[in-house]
Write a structure and sequence with these properties.
The complex is a heterodimer of chains A (163) and B (512). With 163 residues, chain A is α+β, with helices and mostly antiparallel strands. Chain A has four helices and nine strands. The radius of gyration of chain A is 19 Å and the shape is elongated. The model of chain B has no long low-confidence stretch (mean pLDDT 95). Classes of the chains: A alpha+beta (163), B alpha/beta (512).
């Protein structure tokens, strides 16, 4: 047993593409009391497999236990705790803010800084799309708060090891 | 082409399944329709829960995979406790349920339930079969999964139209099991054992699952350690051997002292449940051997470990272990005071080779502590889930797999739960002696209320029931063992009775 302070772990799980596999994995997390911060399920280059990327805040011990419990699952092919490795992680954000004629150009400037895309605009709102790592998305949202966020949708992370 | 029901039964036959336990219902009738044509004995119980425990008892006593069959809806939900029990105690079990037609799934039909979803947290794996062509492969995989590595239950849910559909029978080969194995730290583990002055062998249920009796014995003949066991491991070492300290639990100072004075814990298939609160392992070196990597470092920190089937891993480890100077620790003799303890002790003298099954309660603790277990698979108990009502079904399963004399030690609370299965035992005329420790209470609950709730006794007192007469009503034979009767005399007549027997043993309230 080593460190006892919780930190973010990105757990990448390659699973067989079987019925019930999402609830099996999600159920394992809830049953054993591991709290999921983010979850992304997606197809892979091979139709027989899916990839789940789970973000959890856990101590090193707990993360280790999560990985070992996941490895026991029949449908799980491979599990990686990407925390320690060199990882590319991206989330996607869609966000709608209040924007009259006055705010529009200011918002477009912010957009340029963050390399976000304006997706839609009406006389009173604007919608943006942004991909990036967790802290970049957090920072973008923070800047938009003063304008008034109407609604937003944010995915969990998708992650791969570099190299 | 074969009907799917035939494919199921042909595959079970090929896997060597000779006995299944179950209860018919409309969704699963296509299977029942075909059973008589196969060399498979079906045991009809009084309740699906009894069938699930019978399959568990069959598996626990033999090491083979138990099979239970039930219909959709209530039939399936009645298996849930049995499946959860098998999951907690790592018992290989395959549960086969019928369901409504594929096209009707999710439409809230009569006797429809999502048993796949309900059991998901308590199975090793589960299937909904969506085509008759998949069934053969699924059954073979299910048996492999249930029995390999850390054992456990697998559910196969088969919709009605799949069961009545047809497919080719491919006669696929039985899948080979492969247990996880990582002996990378074998040198470290051997070094720790060789350098240890006072090692302590802590043996868990994994020792029974992997049939490692001989290897554990061989190890201790080299290192002369003190040996303690968990509830699940009773019988994994001979309780009369030198250095045996009994069950490692809060009320056994002999075992706790042995751990305290040791300089190394060698854990063999122990999962360190929360039942052992007062065991201080802090600062102790720990060598852990387990088949499940997730058990390494889960509840207690490990110094070095070996991953693998215990029998195999110990086989590899033994040549690296140096023989230590012979030490004599003396044997373990529990002190006998109470009436219930005297009964168990007498039973140990009268039939030391019996298979002992228990329910859950004070009687269970008493049986575990005072019966001299000497061989593996002779003590069957619901250790993890702690199911009252487990015993009668499990006793039936054990009798059918071993052909041996079975003693069910139960309490008047537990016996009430599934007493209907006594009729199943009578019908099969199995060599069963039930000892009901009758204190007209839920003894363990009453003890807790006495100690932790200031004697505020709520709902722990039961009415007096004449279990001996009940036994007669069911077609068995009833005996009474009152507090003034001679224990050995009554037990001898009960044990020699050619019918299934219930002995109503009067236990004084003072023992609670």
């Amino acid at each position: 047993m080593v460190k006892n302070t919780p930190e973010t772990h990105i757990i990448s799980i390659l699973t067989k593409n079987q019925p019930g596999v999402l609830s099996r994995i999600a159920g394992l997390f809830s049953r054993r009391g591991y709290n999921i911060d983010g979850l992304t399920v997606c197809a892979t280059e091979n139709d027989d497999f899916s990839r789940m990327t789970v973000t959890v805040c856990a101590t090193a011990n707990t993360a280790n236990q999560i990985v070992e419990q996941l490895k026991k699952q029949i449908d799980v092919v491979k599990v990686l705790d990407l925390n320690s490795g060199d990882v590319a992680l991206r989330e996607l954000l869609l966000i709608k803010v209040k924007a009259g004629a006055k705010e529009r150009s200011e918002l477009c400037d912010i957009c340029t800084i963050f390399k976000a895309k304006a997706l839609d605009t009406t006389t009173s709102t604007m919608m943006f799309e942004l991909t990036g790592n967790t802290s970049k998305i957090d920072a973008f949202i923070k800047v938009l708060v003063p304008y008034g966020i109407i609604e937003m949708a944010r995915t969990g992370g998708a992650a791969l090891e570099r190299g | 082409m074969y009907k799917a029901a035939d494919i199921l039964l042909k595959t079970l036959t090929k896997l060597g399944v000779d006995t299944v336990f179950g209860y018919p219902g409309s969704s699963v009738l296509p299977v029942y329709d075909r059973i008589p044509d196969y060399p498979i004995r079906h045991i009809l119980t009084a309740h699906e829960q009894g069938a699930s425990f019978a399959a568990s008892g069959y598996a626990r006593s033999s090491g083979k995979t138990g099979v239970v069959i039930a219909t959709s809806g209530p039939g399936a939900t009645n298996l849930v406790t049995g499946i959860a029990d098998a999951f907690m105690d790592s018992v290989p079990l395959v549960a086969i349920t019928g369901n409504v037609k594929l096209s009707e799934l999710g439409h809230d039909c009569f006797q429809e339930v999502d048993i796949f979803g309900i059991t998901m947290p308590i199975v090793k794996y589960s299937y909904i079969v969506t085509s008759p062509a998949d069934l053969e492969k699924i059954v073979l995989q299910a048996f492999k999964i249930a029995h390999q590595g850390r054992k456990g239950p697998v559910l196969i849910d088969i919709p009605f139209d799949v069961l009545t559909g047809e497919a080719e029978y491919l006669d696929l080969p039985v899948e080979e099991e492969n247990s996880p194995c990582d002996l990378g730290q074998i040198n470290e583990v051997a070094k720790m054992i060789n350098e240890s002055q006072k090692p302590f062998l802590f043996v868990g249920g994994g020792a029974i699952s992997s049939d490692a009796f001989d290897e554990i014995k061989a190890l201790n003949e080299k290192i002369h350690a003190k040996v303690g066991v968990t509830f699940m491991a009773l019988g994994s070492v001979d309780s009369t051997c030198d250095g045996y300290v009994g069950i490692v639990e809060d009320t056994n100072p002999t075992a706790l002292d042995a751990i305290k004075e040791s300089d190394l814990i060698i854990s063999l298939g122990v999962r360190f449940s929360n039942r052992n609160k007062s065991i201080s392992l802090k600062g102790k070196k720990m060598a852990q051997i387990d088949v499940d990597k997730a058990e390494i470092d889960k509840n207690v920190p490990t110094t070095s470990y070996l991953l693998g089937d215990l029998k195999t891993a110990l086989g590899h480890l033994l040549p690296f272990v140096d023989a230590k100077d012979k030490k004599s620790h003396g044997g373990y003799i529990p002190v006998i005071n109470h009436r219930s303890e005297k009964i168990i002790s007498a039973l140990g003298r009268l039939c030391p080779d019996a298979v002992v099954v228990t329910d859950v309660g004070l009687h269970q603790i008493c049986a575990a502590k005072f019966f001299p277990f000497r061989a593996p698979r002779t003590f069957l108990t619901s250790g993890g889930l702690g199911v009252m009502g487990f015993g009668m079904g499990a006793a039936i399963g054990a009798a059918l797999s071993t052909g041996k004399k079975i003693i069910l030690i139960t309490g008047d609370g537990s016996l009430r739960m599934n007493i209907g299965e006594f009729e199943t035992a009578v019908k099969l005329n199995i060599p069963l002696t039930v000892l009901c420790f009758d204190n007209s209470s839920l003894g363990l609950i009453k003890r807790l209320q006495k100690k932790q709730y200031k004697r505020n006794y709520v709902e722990c007192e039961l009415s007096k029931l004449n279990f001996a007469s009940l036994a007669d009503c069911y077609g068995g034979k009833g005996f009474k063992l009152s507090s003034h009767d001679d224990i050995e005399k009554t037990l001898t007549s009960a044990l020699n009775c050619p019918k299934p027997v219930i002995v109503d043993c009067e236990i004084p309230q003072s023992e609670i």
